[in-house]
Design brief:
Blueprint lengths: L2 E2 L1 H12 L7 E8 L5 E8 L7 E5 L2 E5 L1 H6 L4 E6 L4 E6 L5 E2 L5 E3 L1
Length: 107
């Protein structure tokens, strides 16, 4: 299960409304990279992929590929908007460590 805070839900809805194309959902993915080995990625998708898992949370459709799905169980996604930082924040209980920026992690 993935959890979205109310701020994350509002931000995702805002990005979907502002999209230039019809959106099937918001993809949350794990990619190799970052200073800790893996990093989070977000992308608006036009269509589902055959092997996607689709979750609907508070009217937001999340799309996850099989590898990302196994590494994101229990993930909480928040959206922060302060004077010093604006963006999505990830809290992943599967991460054994994470970078100071919070955008990359290791398992």
């Amino acid at each position: 299960m993935i959890n979205l805070t109310p701020n994350a839900v509002k931000a995702i809805h805002r990005f979907i409304r502002g999209s230039e194309f019809p959106v099937a959902g918001m993809r949350i993915m794990i990619e190799g990279g970052g200073c800790s080995g893996f990093q989070y990625g977000l992308r608006l998708e036009k269509e589902l992929q055959v092997d996607d898992t689709e979750l609907e949370i508070d009217g937001v459709k999340l799309l996850l590929d099989p590898m990302s799905y196994t590494m994101l169980g229990g993930l909480t996604v928040d959206f922060i908007d302060t004077l010093t930082h604006t963006g999505f924040k990830f809290d992943n209980p599967n991460a054994s460590s994470q970078c100071g920026c919070g955008q990359s992690f290791s398992v």
